[in-house]
Amino acid sequence: MKKILSDLKIGEKGYIDEINIDEIPLKLLEMGCLPGNLVELIQIAPLGDPYYFNINDSHVAIRKETANEIIIITENAI
C-alpha cells in the first residue's frame, strides 16, 4: 500500500518508492533517503513536527513538509 512518509505510525516500516527530488534536501539524499531503502518511524516531536526516522541505519529528523514529498510502500503490503 502506497502512502506518504508522514502517514507512518510509530514503529511502522516501509520502503521508499518515490521522492520529489526538487523538494528533498541534498543532505537527506546523502544519508540514504533514496528509493528502495527501508524506513521506520521512531518518534514524533511533541508538537507534531519534526519526525524522527531510521533510514538505511541513519537516524534522521525530517520536517513534516519534507516527509510529505516522500512516497513509501508499507512493509505489510509487500
From TrEMBL:
It comes from the Bacteria. The keyword Magnesium does not apply. Signal peptide: none annotated. Residues 3-74 form the Ferrous iron transporter FeoA-like domain. Keywords: Iron. The keyword DNA damage does not apply. Pfam families: FeoA. This is Ferrous iron transport protein A.
